[in-house]
Design goal:
344 residues; alpha/beta; TIM Barrel; Transcription Regulator spoIIAA; 2 domains; nine-stranded mixed β-sheet; two-stranded antiparallel sheet; 11 strands; globular
Amino acid sequence: MRIRQLIFKIPKKYLIYKLFNLFKFIIFKNFPSSYAPYKPLSMDIEPTTGCNFRCTMCQVSEPNFKANNMTVETFRNVIKQNLQLIKVKLQGMGEPFVNKNFFEMIEICDQYGVFVETITNGSLLNEKIIDKILNSKSIYRVSISIDGASKEIFEKIRVKSNFDTVINNVKILSKKNENKVKLRAMCLLQKINYHELESIVRLCKDIGFHEFELQVQLTGWGKNDWENKNRESDINYGEKNNKFIKEIINRYNSQNFKARVVESNLLSESNKCSYPWHNPYVTAQGDIVSCCMIGDSKVNNYGNVNNNDFHNIWNSESYKDLRKSIINHDLKDFCKNCYKETRD
């Protein structure tokens, strides 16, 4: 497997940080407290908020949304302050390949032995970018958003997209890949594409994806207006929908095509959020945010890696207060959209 091959490429001087932190995580992960005695194993890092699409469920579609690219210096600060990191996910509000420094960031991950997954809309995957992905030491997974099986539905959701371009790019990547990286399709199920679900899964399997992830509840980014807007598009995932969806997923799930429903934002008092203990979100400007379901430092902001060491941010009073609120189920307003007790 690609991941096993990558492990042997981690420089020994950084491997000790990763193993020691992993050891602490294994010991303490089942005893959550407001203080985290280890640092995160993974991070979501936002290369840019700039995007060439204007997807209907994304806040980038707001008329006054400002695009920012993460600088190489900020990215290096994040990685150097977190030598324990095992992997990062390069994703966020924008399309990662809009940032011209994307592959400089990959080189930094190569240097520090950090595995990389990136989530892309697939539109900018020309052959030059594909070759760089496949020749990277650290990229182990490329996830691509596929929200429709037809040009009509795909382009209604992903405004300014070109369905044919994205599908053709996926086919080229799949053909050249030779199992160097895992290819994952990601779909946000909504009322508008619900009737195409089986066709979407079948399409993704046919064009060469190894994995398929279905998200069944839209996020509101911790903002009331977006929660109300996206709730109108939600499928109201319940027992009836649950059965129908899982029948389709199970029908196509196989050893060579792993399909699953993502339930990380379908939480409850007995199934609490774990993001604040293991996976913070770093915005393009270097701000630390609670998670990718928020992704906006205007909603919450625990500090910036350019003027404060991450070690101090990770167990700051405000971060500990967030963890305490989840333990006690006294949820912050921006957390409530992910919990069934407070969502309705």
